[in-house]
Amino acid sequence: MEELKVVIGQWCMEKMGVELSNEKTRITDIYVGFDFLGCNIRKYRINETKSKTLIKPSKESIKSIKSKVKDIIKSHNGASQEVLIGKLNPVIRGWANYHNGNVAKKIFRAIDSYIHEKLWKWACKRHVTKGNVWIKSCDTFD
Model pTM? Predict the structure, then answer.
């Protein structure tokens, strides 16, 4: 395996002018998968003769977007709805565009539910004297 690492390192240097980092470079089983640039790359067996390689957002990337959304909502407790949306949209759109080519339907759905839950709690905190029906039917939260 180490000989293969050396050959690949030489090829990368010759063709692309980049040097492989010994700390970051590892050889792993594709069926175990690995994380690279916010994505998890893994090959899944379909049956004995077929397999499929899937690229999904990594767990660390999912944790990161949730943390960013939570921090933005927390830091804008007193802000208007428009300001909060203005802060959230670029973060959500950027993450979604980065992962739009990945196999991420279930993950996008989970992120959407997470954001909806956080925004619902934000709206309820802003209107503690109002009921859920009023908050849900309200066009603006100002």
Answer: 0.79
Task: Determine the residue type at 68.
Answer: K
Q: Look up residue 23 and give its two tokens.
A: 């700390």
Query: Is the distance from CB of 128 to CB of 135 less than 8 angstroms?
Result: no
**pLDDT, one tens digit for every residue, the chain (142 residues):** 778 888 888 888 888 888 888 787 888 888 989 988 899 999 999 998 999 999 999 999 999 999 999 999 999 988 888 899 999 999 999 999 999 988 989 999 999 999 999 999 988 888 777 777 877 777 554 4
